[in-house]
């Protein structure tokens, strides 16, 4: 009698707890370890002879979340943000825990790299540094800080396989 009543109640309580923790981002460390996007797939882009495995942020929600709350990013991995034409977004490091290179791309060419952008923990949103697009862009690529220098990636470099995203 006890088991037939309480086991289903315990299972429901556990389910509600897990869903609650997921919705609050308390279990993000699980998705951080997997390092995949919502579709569960990493895509590949190429700059010069460097292949980069990227998660794709192509919705407002995904672009808004970005790499926030990540505690690490694998080497040669990143996130690519897809924007429509004639877009000049502004980025910030809200809830970002790892330093990044922010790579601005238009027409498959890198137009600017904000290198070694540092997290700003315990900073009010209004005080966070803003990184505006230098011109109209199609994509933004975020990778670990130092990635651009390490791989000799500069403004003017061509990005390949963006059409596969």
Write the layout of secondary structure elements.
Elements: H1 2-23, H2 28-34, E1 43-47, E2 50-57, H3 60-65, E3 77-87, E4 90-91, E5 100-106, E6 109-117, E7 131-132, E8 137-144, H4 147-150, E9 159-160
Parallel strand pairs: 2-3
Antiparallel strand pairs: 1-2, 1-9, 3-8, 4-7, 5-6, 5-8
Nutshell version of this structure?
The chain has 165 residues and is α+β, with helices and mostly antiparallel strands. The protein is 24% helix and 33% strand.
Give the tags.
single chain; about 160 residues; alpha+beta; Jelly Rolls; seven-stranded mixed sheet; two-stranded antiparallel sheet
Description:
The chain is an alpha+beta fold. It has four helices and nine strands, in the order ααββαββββββαβ. The protein has helices at 2-23, 28-34, 60-65, 147-150, and strands spanning 43-47, 50-57, 77-87, 90-91, 100-106, 109-117, 131-132, 137-144, 159-160. Strands 6-5-8-3-2-1-9 form a seven-stranded mixed sheet. A hairpin with a 2-residue loop joins β5 (100-106) and β6 (109-117). The longest helix is centred in the N-terminal third of the chain and has 22 residues, at 2-23. Mean pLDDT is 85; it is low at 27-39.
